[in-house]
Every structure is written in C-alpha cells, then in structure tokens.
What we know:
Order of helices and strands: EHEHEHEHEHEEHEEEH
Largest sheet: 8 strands, parallel, barrel
CATH architecture: Alpha-Beta Barrel
Number of helices: 7
Strand content: 15-25%
Low-confidence stretches: none
CATH topology: TIM Barrel
Shape: globular
Amino acid sequence: MSARTRIKICGLLKAADVEAAVEAGADAIGLVFHPASPRFVGLEQAACLASTLPPFVTPVGLFVNASRTEVEDATASIPTLVLQFHGDESVSECAGYGRPYLRAARMAPGFDLLDFARRFEGAQGLLLDTHFEGYGGSGKVFDWSLVPQGVASHRLVLSGGLHAGNVGAGIAQLRPWAVDVSSGVESSRGVKDAVAIRRFCDAVREADARLDAATA
Length: 216
C-alpha cells in the first residue's frame, strides 16, 4: 500500500499564506491562538482565513492553556476547527469540547511517550515537538531516537525544526502519519515563504516515493 504523509503548515497569518499552502498540497493549516507567539492570529482574521479553505483541507487551532471561553469562541467561529493543545491541558480539558484534538508531546530525555499516549488515548494524534522553556513551537529538532517502539505510527505527527532539508529523514526514520512545519517555511520570524512551502511539500512527497520504491 502506498504511503502518503499528511502535511500541516502552521502559523499562517495572511490569505496569501493559505493560498500557498493549499496550492502546494497541504492537508491542514495551523492557526495560532497563543498571544505570546509571533504567529498569533486574532479570531476574526482566523475565521476569515479558514473560510477560504477548499474541501478536505482542515483548519487546526493551536491553544496554550487557553480559557474555555477562548476555545469555545474559536470553535463557534470556525465550525470545522480541529483543536491542538500545547500547554498543560489535562485529558478532561482536551476532551471536554467534543471535538477531534491533537495533543502536543514535549520530547526530551526521560519523557515517557508510551504513558503519555495511553493517557491521551482519545487524541486524534500526538504531535511530537521539542521540549524547551516556553510553549508553542521551538523551531528546533529533537532527538528522534527518543520515540519508542509501541506508539502507533498512525497517531504520530512529527514536528520540531522541520524543513525541506530534513523532513525526508524524519519520515524515513519514524514513518509518522503527518508532519507539521512552521519556522522551516519562513523567510523571517513569522513570515511565511511560498517557495519554501512548496519545497517542503515536494520534499515530503519525494520521501514518500522513496519509501514506496523501497517496499515495492
């Protein structure tokens, strides 16, 4: 069976960013609702961006220890929004909205991903990101060997410092269901680059093609 790694482009702020992601073949776009992030987008603008998405391209809202009201306002404004939790949210908090959600796992030596996966068994996916002092994306790669055997690959979304030059290696090593990129497709902090988005998506497809050829 042919593999196809899904692609999420995160931290989009402008209509041109969304257009570039869709044209490059992204499966999802990320809207950051964390005010401390340089990629923070207001709810009105986020709803406008999400309204331009064609069928089968999913808007994902990134939250960090947000209030229930903030999350509910976002889901009311963007009916198709998938939730992504990057803070200290509990299992009950993540599941309490009746929406599909992704749970970020902050990867570092000693982190028990198997236990984390069991606790968040209701999550649609586990987004593996680099642990750092702060919340949201770090823009840095974590040690992929920290990912243990036993976590179903179809639940994994690989993130953390990805770009066109290294995403193929991550796909080959971990075989994740999806990859998530933000700073790796930017020309400067928070500014997306359409050419970099295209190169990243092409690199993912090339990695998939290599895996298909190796297993043919």
